[in-house]
Amino acid sequence: MSKQFDVVVIGGGPGGYIAAIRAAQLGFNVACIDEWKNAAGGPAPGGTCTNVGCIPSKALLQSSEHFEHATHHFADHGISTGKVEMDVAKMIARKDGVVKQNNDGILYLFKKNKVSFFHGRGSFVAAKDGAYEIKVAGAAEEVIVGMQVIVATGSNARALPGAEFDEVNVLSNDGALRVGAVPKKLGVIGSGVIGLEMGSVWRRLGAEVTILEALPTFLGAADEGVAKEALKAFTKQGLKIELGVKISEVKNGKKGVTVSYANAKGEAQELAVDKLIVSIGRVPNTTGLNTEAVGLQLDERGAIVVDDECRTNLPGVWAVGDVVRGPMLAHKAEEEGVAVAERIAGQHGHVNFATVPWVIYTSPEIAWVGRTEQQLKAEGVAYKAGQFPFLANGRARALGDTTGFVKIIADAATDEILGVHIIGPMASELIAEAVMAMEFKASSEDIARICHAHPSLSESTKEAALAVDKRTLNF
Ligand code: FAD
Ligand code: NAI
Description:
The chain is an alpha/beta fold and 475 residues long. The protein has 3 domains: 3-157 and 283-351, FAD/NAD(P)-binding domain, CATH 3.50.50.60; 170-280, FAD/NAD(P)-binding domain; 355-468, FAD/NAD-linked reductase, C-terminal dimerisation domain (Enolase-like, domain 1), CATH 3.30.390. Helices cover 32% and strands 26% of the residues. It has helices at residues 14-25, 47-52, 54-73, 88-112, 173-176, 193-204, 224-237, 330-344, 373-379, 394-399, 427-439, 444-449, 459-468; strands at residues 3-10, 30-34, 116-128, 131-138, 141-151, 155-157, 170-171, 185-189, 208-212, 240-242, 246-253, 256-262, 268-273, 275-278, 282-284, 317-319, 358-360, 365-370, 383-389, 405-411, 417-424. The strands form 5 sheets. A 5-stranded mixed barrel has the order 1-2-3-4-5. A 5-stranded parallel β-sheet has the order 7-14-8-9-10. A 5-stranded antiparallel β-sheet has the order 17-18-21-20-19, sandwiched between helices. The protein is globular. The mean pLDDT is 97. 1,4-dihydronicotinamide adenine dinucleotide is lined by residues 160, 189-195, 197, 212-215, 247, 279-282, 327-329, 359-361.
């Protein structure tokens, strides 16, 4: 007799494991199936985010930033260090340790919430009597039954045609996070989030980094002012970013990788590098799910088709996170997972896509929520914008990190905040206040009237709000 569950979650990334925990909190008997293996072949729940995404990339960004501070900035504080050396193997081992803490934490949370964890690949077998039979192929094989199924199988790196990932020379995010020694020359294809974060890590550690981007504009999704400031800062740091290129060929040889491409002027160019990171977006992962067995509908990109509330075309089957439409972000996946569990319980789970924040963990950090100036112009919305530079913020001066600014955009008539765009120190943390303000439909005046601690970076947010009304106090 197969084990029966109220809810079966396929995939244990941030979408899946959070959905499983929330469903268990709501009183359901829940199973979560995840196939990710650690180096020893054991379970490693947490998905892309924990194993080869958010968490390990931030660990390496932290290590490499310490190195950069020690080599370039400690002296400003009167600290002399002698020669600073980088032990890449130790940095990678530390990162692996951080990942393991998170894997173990999720296994503990499953136990605490009485979620039954299955280590293996889950696939649909059949729909039967209003429920779904799911095969789990792990060390052993078994079939379990779920009255409701949440698919949260995530995404994989998109390969460039003709440049398959070997994870030795041509690297996806996976290989990029475990390079054994600093490459002398590193090429990156795609100046998106991964390209900038991973390019920064290896540049800080001494690699000569060239990023090749197909689009003529840099960071097109960000506010134009922020993108301009970011390009200036990254170029000054030594990242070489070429826009408007067209890659024609990638040759992966014994000595490294050669990329042939046309530059923005159409001139033929060659880039020879030791390692090449290809970060040109990600594709939804439905491989091995056997969607055909139950007729689960996919779109032309292979993403599972869902409505605004994550319902698929099948009754009782839901899908969340990177495997469906929308931004591929861990917190978006988590919010959808919670909302689906609550909907299954008859509650009114809700995700506000208009207030999903974006963060790029480079230095300076970049973070935004809501609409950009260029979007508002295109939509014909009348707005007013206020900006405050970190250069005029006392805390930023004390930190020695004064690049960037906070920009607040508000509706010209109602003063409701429509977007907040930050480039500078701790933008990833500062953006939370803006998200909260937008959730509460705050006006720029609301932020301007709130008492912010002094000296703090967050005073720049208050000053940007004052700037909307042209009355900054410190600039
Ligand atoms: P995933 O995390 O991909 O998890 C899916 C899980 O399902 C995996 O464990 C997979 O093995 C498993 N699975 C797949 N198929 C099956 C099957 N048939 N049976 C059993 N298990 C299966 N986002 C942020 O918000 N902030 C960041 O800082 C950030 N940094 C990133 C850095 C990098 C380098 C990368 C690559 C991504 C980053 N992201 C970040 C994006 C983030 O990782 C994803 O948006 C997030 O992981 C999506 O969660 P998910 O649960 O939908 O899928
Ligand atoms: P991306 O979508 O951020 O950027 C891909 C870039 O590659 C784009 O600028 C695109 O124009 C370019 N590109 C596409 N095809 C190309 C080609 N043939 N030649 C040259 N350039 C080409 O994708 P990326 O960086 O792979 O990251 C995937 C996703 O992972 C992100 O969109 C994001 O959702 C998530 N992520 C989030 C992070 C965060 O929140 N801090 C960090 C890293 C990843």
